[in-house]
Amino acid sequence: MAAISSHWKSTICALVFGLLGACSQGSEQPPADNETAQTDENARPDIVEADDAARPIVVFLGDSLTAGYDLPAQDALPEQLASLIDGLGIEATILNAGVSGDTTRAALERYDWSVRGVDADILVLALGGNDYLSGYEADIAEANLAQIIETAQAGGLQVAMVGIEVPAGMAPAGREADFAGIFPALAQRYDVALYADFLGPVLSRDDLTLPDGIHPNAEGVSVIAKALAPFVAEQIEQWRLGDASEQ
Q1: pLDDT tier at 227 (50, 70, 90 boundaries)?
Q2: I need a labelling partner for 168 at 20 to 30 A (CA). Which of 55, 80, 109, 153 fits?
Q3: Distance CA 228, CA 63 (A)
Q4: How far is CA 31 from CA 36, 111, 134, 135, 147, in A?
Q5: Which of 75, 66, 73, 76 lies closest to 114, judged by CA?
Q6: Is the pLDDT of residue 6 over 50?
Q7: Buried b vs exposed e over 134-165: b needs ≥16 C-beta within 10 Å?
Q8: CB contact at 8 A, 59 and 124
Q9: In what order do the strands lie in the sheet with 57-62?
């Protein structure tokens, strides 16, 4: 197998691990305060109206892949998923709690605001890319995600994760593999559902990404949403079965 050039390897890693709001690899600093200030308005999803009380509330807690970086609000992943789920005849309210540039630590710190504050029933975690790019070790990101999962489960929420995989042709070693390994390890430890290859449908597809070559465009998000919709529908169905058994 031909070796992957360092430039191409960096490009692949950038796409696979998100570069979800910051493109400077190796920095050990969290996102700048001014970036956080620009995205605070998206930190808490819209409050659910009373007539939605009988529908499970699904919150996507993530970074710019969830927030819909540089896209109209209706083209973001949770919004596209909501349309697909509704088209399947499944009643659910899917909320966007994505903030561009967020690390696992930042998401943990806003958990009460973004998740508990909207009375979520199902939590979908889509985080980790910015930890990788900020130079944090995988065990730090894993510990933060574990704390989010434990907090959610203690509050009675059903938890699911979307993860990332090391792309074909890249040696399964180093930080890339360490970060990719976080997701199956946590899924097994906490018995949560895992959608393993979040970016797989758009990987290396120039026609499905924005000009930065990193974030998916509206069509790219649509491709991801269509691939992810059956997984989300399954989580909602499992929640309904569990909710019915408790009544």
Answers
A1: very high
A2: 80
A3: 17
A4: 7, 17, 8, 12, 20
A5: 66
A6: no
A7: bebebeebbebbbebbebbeeeebbbbbbbbb
A8: yes
A9: 93-98, 57-62, 122-126, 158-162, 193-195
pLDDT digits (tens, 9 = 90+) for 56-86: 999 999 999 999 999 999 999 999 999 999 9
Confidence check: pLDDT of 148 > 70 = yes
Determine the structural domain holding residue 103 and report its residue range.
Answer: 32-245
Distance between CA 226 and CA 223 in Å, rounded? 5
Query: For residue 15, is it within any domain?
Result: no
Does the residue 71 lie in any domain? yes
Query: How much is the average pLDDT of 95-119?
Result: 97
3-state secondary structure of 58: strand
**Token output for 179:** 């970060």
Within the chain, residue ranges assigned H as helices are 6-16, 33-39, 64-67, 77-87, 104-109, 111-114, 129-133, 138-154, 174-190, 218-245
| pLDDT value of position 172 | 53
Q: What is the CATH number of the domain that holds 93?
A: 3.40.50.1110
Tell the residue number behind the tokens 């069509």, with chain if given: 219
**Which residue reads 């992957």 in tokens?**
4
Which pLDDT belongs to residue 23? 39
Phi, psi of 144 (to 5 degrees): -65, -45
Q: How many CB atoms lie within 10 A of CB 113?
A: 14
Domain count along the chain: 1
